[in-house]
Specification:
Strand content of chain B: 5-15%
Family (chain B): Belongs to the complex I 49 kDa subunit family.
CATH topology of the largest domain in chain B: Cytochrome-c3 Hydrogenase, chain B
Radius of gyration of chain A: 20 Å
Largest sheet of chain B: 3 strands, antiparallel
Shape of chain A: elongated
Largest sheet of chain A: 5 strands, mixed
Distance between the termini of chain B: 36 Å
Radius of gyration of chain B: 23 Å
CATH architecture of the domain at 5-111 in chain A: 2-Layer Sandwich
CATH superfamily of the largest domain in chain B: Cytochrome-c3 Hydrogenase, chain B
Order of helices and strands of chain A: HEEHEEEEHEH
Oligomer: heterodimer
Keywords (chain B): Cell membrane, Membrane, NAD, Quinone, Translocase, Transport
CATH architecture of the largest domain in chain B: Orthogonal Bundle
CATH class of the domain at 5-111 in chain A: Alpha Beta
Structural class of chain B: mainly alpha
Number of strands of chain A: 7
Subcellular location (chain B): Cell membrane
Shape of chain B: globular
Number of strands of chain B: 6
Membrane topology (chain B): Peripheral membrane protein
Distance between the termini of chain A: 48 Å
Helix content of chain B: 40-55%
CATH superfamily of the domain at 5-111 in chain A: NADH:ubiquinone oxidoreductase Nqo5 subunit
Number of helices of chain A: 4
Domain NADH-quinone oxidoreductase subunit D (chain B): 141-410
Order of helices and strands of chain B: HEEEHHHHHHHHHHHHHEEEHHHH
Strand order of the largest sheet of chain A: 1-2-5-4-3
CATH topology of the domain at 5-111 in chain A: Beta Polymerase, domain 2
Number of helices of chain B: 18
């Protein structure tokens, strides 16, 4: 492996200072955090720097951390891959829970388009500057963001799973329906 | 305009009006899909047509979205495997094996060599099944039904091998954490050997039916091309990327499951058009056959699962006759097993490209977050770019050669 993770860390730290933090090796992938306002510059640097050459955006996805502090309730996770030295990295941008917003990276990778739409669709994270930010897998009329932790997996109002239909009567039937 | 049922603010409405004002010609809107037989799956494309030529397109996906990522957050690990089956259902075992390998990476489990070789065999069989479907259906879409009917018998043979190994055919739910549910029977090996003996002749015939066929070449060369740079930017992986000339293959880049033990080539195309995609898949089938042959010949002796009683289900005879085994069976299936707090990303070379699993665990019985990197979803967004300016019939051939599987697209 030609490119050392220490080199990546050094280069990023000298260029972006405290906007890149929390460097750590998680299993086989080198990971760090990026301040949300710098996501575009960091990605451009990773992509275009002649030594780093992270030429491929593997994956974009969101994560919801409702138990974290308000500033870190959402994360957008980017996986990038350098095909020359064959090394992967992952970085996270933490966003606040009130109105999660981050710049789009569609200007750098065309493939980010639908992945960001998917993230918006499921988490309600707004990608500023996205050419067509609308729902993709869910229907357009939907108002909630289903992968947020507070969204119940099943509709609490469902009646077809009511225990009474199966010959069982429980006091807390509604509670069971929620499960 | 009114009979188009197009909202007046839609950008196509403006384009139609503008063209009408320019030279009086009429553009039309065509709904390709969602249930058109030529789309081989449920996705809609709203195409703006100038006669037979496509000026612009807009894709709508999500018709069979089943919220796998949400369901996965509420299910213990063993109950997530059936979800992975239903993503790329043309090569379900690859998804299963990818999921087990992700878990093994998260749980730090080393699997025996024999298991790795068995996995290689089953994954390559799945890849062949996947490519059989894609290439023969491309033949159908360009007017050659014979090849499709001919090679489909051999997909059936592959399904018989699956059946012998795990009991299921399409949605296999095959394997366990650390290995397989049982050792492969002699019948399974006999069927694999039969397949290896018979299939090359059939595939050769199929190839010679189409590869140099004048009609087929006219229908596919320079149809739906994509340049290497653009394909990379769009996040293409797998045969579609290799057809554009980039030899990116995870089996070589980061060998998993002992792929480094086998000799095989990575076929690449040049122009990234439909014909190249067809040829790359054809060549990959030969490489897969080579790998399976090597794996069968070199198959090591040894256990068919890792020694991880915490995660590997106890044998069925025990479960039915022994209290402790029954308890363990129940605990493992319900996810009452030790899970470290970690984050892993594991990618395998699926039938369509890099199939990645991004798993975040928080020590509880279910994943905190599980994201599937579905190759189809990522490269299908390039479709409209690829068919812009082409004929409608070319769009059908392009779609078919991209091998978009609706289940994987929509998760």
């Amino acid at each position: 492996m030609a490119l050392k993770t220490s080199v990546i860390q050094e280069k990023l730290e000298s260029k972006f200072g405290d906007k890149v933090t929390g460097f750590t090796q998680v299993k086989d992938i080198f990971s760090f955090e990026v301040a949300p306002e710098a996501n575009n510059e960091v990605m451009r640097f990773l992509k275009e720097d002649p030594a780093l050459r992270f030429n491929f955006l593997t994956d974009v996805c969101g994560v919801h951390y409702p138990d974290e502090q308000p500033e870190r309730q959402f994360a957008v996770v980017y996986h990038m891959h350098n095909w020359f030295d064959n090394i992967r990295i992952r970085f996270k941008c933490f966003l606040n829970g009130e109105n999660p917003e981050i710049d789009t990276v569609t200007g750098l990778f065309l493939g980010a388009n639908w992945q960001e739409r998917e993230t918006y669709d499921f988490y309600g994270i707004i990608f500023k500057g996205h050419p067509q930010l609308k729902r993709i897998l869910n229907m357009d009329e939907m108002v909630s963001f289903p992968l947020r932790k507070e969204f119940p997996m099943e509709d609490g109002g469902r009646t077809d799973k009511d225990d009474r239909f199966f010959g069982r009567v429980t006091d807390n039937a509604t509670q069971i329906n929620q499960e | 305009m009114s009979d188009l049922l197009l909202p007046p603010e839609h950008r196509y409405a403006k384009m139609i009006e503008q063209r009408q004002n320019e030279d009086g010609s009429e553009l039309s809107i065509l709904n390709l899909g969602p249930t058109h037989p030529a789309t081989h799956g449920i996705f809609q494309n709203i195409l703006l047509m100038d006669g037979e030529r496509i000026l612009d397109g807009e894709g709508t996906v999500g018709y069979i979205h089943r919220a796998f990522e949400k369901i996965a957050e509420n299910r213990p690990f063993y109950q997530i495997t059936p979800l992975t089956d239903r993503m790329n259902y043309c090569s379900a075992p690859i998804n299963n094996m990818g999921w087990w390998m992700t878990l093994e990476k998260a749980l730090d489990i080393e699997v025996p060599k024999r298991v790795q070789y068995m996995r290689v065999i089953i994954m390559e069989l799945a890849r062949i099944a996947d490519h059989i479907i894609c290439n023969s259906v491309l033949g159908v879409d360009t007017g050659a039904l014979t090849g499709f009917l001919y090679v489909f018998q051999y997909r059936e043979k592959i399904y018989e091998i699956y059946e012998e190994i795990c009991g299921a055919r399409l949605t296999t739910n095959m394997g366990r954490i650390g290995g397989f549910e049982r050792d492969w029977s002699p019948a399974a090996f006999r069927k694999i050997n039969e397949f290896l003996d018979e299939f090359p002749k059939i595939w050769g015939e199929f190839e010679s039916l189409l590869t140099r066929n004048r009609i087929f070449m006219d229908r596919t060369i320079d149809v739906g091309p994509i340049s290497a740079e653009k394909a990379m930017s769009y996040g293409f992986t797998g045969p579609n990327l290799r057809a554009a000339g980039i030899d990116y293959d995870i089996r070589v880049m980061k060998p998993y499951s002992s792929y480094e033990d086998f000799e095989f080539d990575v076929p690449v195309g040049k122009s990234g058009d439909t014909y190249d995609r067809f040829c790359v898949r054809n060549a990959e089938v030969w490489e897969s056959l080579k790998i399976i042959r090597q794996a069968v010949d070199k198959m090591p002796e040894g256990p068919f699962h890792a020694n991880v009683p915490d995660y590997y289900l106890p044998p069925k005879e025990e479960v039915y006759n022994n209290m402790e085994a029954l308890i363990y069976h129940f605990k493992i299936v319900m996810g009452e097993v030790p899970v470290p707090k970690t984050e892993v990303y594991h990618a395998v070379e699926g039938g369509n490209g890099e199939l990645g699993f991004y798993l975040i665990t928080d020590g509880s019985r279910t994943p905190y977050r599980l994201h599937f990197r579905r190759p189809c979803f990522i490269y299908y967004q390039a479709f409209n770019d690829m068919v812009r300016g082409q004929m409608l019939s070319d769009a059908i051939a392009t779609l078919s050669s991209l091998n978009v599987i609706a289940g994987e697209l929509d998760a």
